[in-house]
Amino acid sequence: MKIISVVGARPNFMKIAPFIKAIKAYDEINNNIIEHLLVHTGQHYDDRMSRAFFEQLEIPDADINLGVGSGSHAEQVGQTMIVFEKVLHDEKPDWVVIVGDVNAILACSVTAKKEHILCCHIEAGLRSGDITMPEEVNRLVADRLSDLLLTPDLISSENLRREGVPENRIKFTGNIMIDTLENNIGKADKLSIAEIIKENSFNNSRNDRKKIRENIFAVMTLHRPSNVDRKEVLEPIVRFMLDEVCVNVPLIWTIHPRTFKMLDSFGLLNEIMSHKNLYALEPLGYLEMLKLNMHARVLMTDSGGLQEECTILGTPCLTLRRNTERPVTLKDHGGASVLVGNNIERLREEYAKAVKETRKPVRPELWDGRTAERCLKAILDFKETN
Ligand code: UD1
Q: How many of the other CB atoms lie within 10 Å of CB of 365?
């Protein structure tokens, strides 16, 4: 059996790593019957957004890099389809496996199905209900086209049933990102927070800073277009962080390239870089981010994956979004996260509560570190019934 799996952007890498390990383990005892090729679309190309994850998570180099890079969504998707079609012609795989919700899954599911190749989506069925999110468009298309839909939780399985997906195509396998968390938590724990800051600061020449202590700092990541692309939205968030969070606890902000560009163009960067109690870091590796999450008093984010990691680690999480495709991570469902949108009043109110909370780790069903094995088994067991 020949499988091509596809990655494109940062959040894909922690999802594909355990899947590739599961294939390797299976092949070792089954005479290498699975031939696997890894395709990287090249959407994320910086060392810090891509290479670092391959190294830390021991992902083998991509067999094929489509070299798509930055661009508008249509450019990224169109370019991926053009080059990926050639890959499928040359390689003739039995399966294309896609993970998560980035542009690669839209491009590659369409291309695979037009070539009559089976497509499996790992992390299927998530729905934010917000069609203005590029990732929601990607999820809807990929799930409509995929033959095998592997879901991280039962709410996602139910979403698919509601959309009319036949039962034989849906399989609840659990959250594959938690495999990576379990595989790496020991390594992350050995890192030093002071070193992480020193190695990754934009402004590391500064020596006027207080020392950071475990459980006495906040962490923030932001990258969604809805939060960072407009000054009237981003500036009040920055003001809240500088004027209210940073007077209370040190804030570690790992700044995504999209956000960096926007902060610069809105003239907000200098104040951030020069603030005494704000540690502006470049995008971090997986282990470094995990270490910060393990010891943060509160984490503020618009990332999907971090909401899940906060749930497992019990870190109080303020999600700067109005909705989430991951309701199991919400406090209402027993998780660690609260939706605050980009409404500063709500952020203030929930922040005041979150800094007083203690960690409450929660483990949703099948977030047990064994999801990749179940995903591979589902592919091997899949029977088409047309
Ligand atoms: C993408 C994903 C999003 C994911 C996020 C994590 C889609 C639709 N979005 O959003 O789901 O949560 O990645 O990071 O697929 N850039 C660099 N270096 C890089 C990569 C990007 O400088 O290595 C710049 C690009 O030039 C662009 C900006 O960052 O200006 C945004 O990159 P883009 O690929 O458009 O989407 P993300 O916002 O990263």
A: 12
301 lines ligand 1 (CB under 6 A): no
Query: In the prediction, which pLDDT does 210 show?
Result: 62
Q: Cβ(99)–Cβ(125) under 8 Å?
A: no
Identify the pLDDT of residue 214.
78
114 membership: H or E segment, kind and range: helix 103-114
Q: Is 73 a catalytic residue?
A: no
Set 40, 44, 223, 295: catalytic member: 223
The residues pairing with 119 across neighbouring beta strands, listed in sequence order, are 96
Helices (H), 207-299: 225-228, 231-240, 257-265, 269-274, 286-295
Closest listed residue to residue 275, CA positions, set 298, 246, 255, 296: 246
Q: Which two tokens stand for residue 376?
A: 């591979």
- pLDDT, tens only, 45-90: 999 999 999 999 999 999 999 999 999 999 999 999 999 999 999 9
Angle (deg, nearest 10), helices 193-200 and 286-295: 130
State how far the Cα of 178 lies from the Cα of 14, in Å rounded to an integer. 9
Ligand 1 atom with the shortest distance to the CA of 134? 8
Please identify every stretch of the chain with a pLDDT value under 70, giving residue numbers as ranges: 203-210, 385-386
